[in-house]
Specification:
Helix content is 38%, strand content 23%. It is globular, with a radius of gyration of 17 Å. A 9-stranded mixed sheet has the order 3-2-1-4-5-6-7-8-9, with helices on both faces. A two-stranded parallel sheet has the order 10-11. With 257 residues, the protein is an alpha/beta fold. It contains 8 helices and 11 strands. The structure holds 3-hydroxy-5-(hydroxymethyl)-2-methylisonicotinaldehyde. 3-hydroxy-5-(hydroxymethyl)-2-methylisonicotinaldehyde binds at residues 11-14, 19-20, 43, 45, 50, 80-81, 108, 111, 117, 208, 210-211.
Length: 257
């Protein structure tokens, strides 16, 4: 009998463990959820930034997904750094084939240091193939701006962007506002109402906040929480992990999860 709830991350490897699939797995573990992971891209990086990126062969990615998913069914899954557009279509195909539920899409575009983490065409493919299958998408302000073509400067524009993003097919949209000037506001829109959560702005540069946030949402969905409960828990878990973040290296802080 299955005793654990299971969450899957499909993402890139970050050797620092601060972001990417390593951060997702650590988050799942902390939330009491058993973690599966399918790497689709490797990065060479340290806490100062990303220096190189290597795609896994598409066929091998497909083999990983095929082998894993014919054996284990996750209760929830998330996508992170999907470097090439081919991968996006394979993931969408598997989700449809197996009717996988509770998909969380973190539509990653660039690292916190501004390095592009996806090739051309990925954002468009994620929007077209994954948003319509998702329970929730979790763009930050920059990603929401690129995906909608809107200039987002405050809460009003965040709301407009969330409405527009939901029109692309996601059931719920969460825009994380950590990159805004002033207070840090996260905003949820489920098609009916907006829910905003405010946190104090913390000094310093943090690595992997978006990954930890979306992995917490994924774990909470696997555990059976509603999307709004998952939002509150993820906001809480991430902001606590930021408050006690530490320097593992000489660059950005790593969240304490
Ligand atoms: O934080 C976004 C992110 C996601 N996934 C991987 C990364 C990064 C940022 O550097 O390296 C693998």
């Amino acid at each position: 009998m299955k005793m654990y709830k299971i969450a899957l991350t499909i993402a890139g490897s970050d050797p620092t463990g601060g972001a990417g699939l390593q951060a997702d797995l650590r988050t799942f573990q902390r939330m009491g959820v058993y973690g599966l992971s399918i790497p689709c891209v490797l990065t060479a990086q340290n806490t100062g930034g990303v220096s190189n990126i290597l795609d896994l062969p598409v066929d091998f990615f497909s083999d990983q997904a095929g082998a894993l998913l014919k054996d284990i069914r996750p209760d929830a899954l998330k996508t992170g750094m999907l470097h090439s557009p081919d991968i996006v279509e394979i993931i969408a195909g598997k989700i449809k084939e197996l009717s996988l539920e509770n998909l969380v899409v973190d539509p990653i575009i660039a690292s916190s240091t501004g390095v592009a983490l996806v090739k051309e065409g990925v954002s468009g493919a994620v929007k077209k193939f994954l948003f319509p299958l998702s329970k929730v998408i979790t763009p930050n302000i920059n990603e929401a701006s690129v995906l909608t073509g809107m200039d987002i400067r405050g809460e009003t524009e965040m709301k407009d962007a969330a409405v527009k993003l939901r029109d692309y097919g996601a059931e719920t949209v969460i825009v994380t506002g950590g990159h805004l000037q002033g207070k840090a506001v996260d905003l949820l829109f489920d098609g009916e109402e907006f829910l905003t959560l405010e946190n104090e702005r913390l000094e310093g540069e943090f690595h992997g906040t978006g990954c930890v946030f979306s992995a917490t949402v994924t774990a909470c969905l696997a555990l059976g929480y509603s999307i709004k409960e998952s939002f509150v828990k993820a906001n809480d878990f991430t902001s606590n992990a930021m408050k006690t973040a530490f320097f593992a290296g000489k660059g950005m802080k790593i969240l304490n999860i």
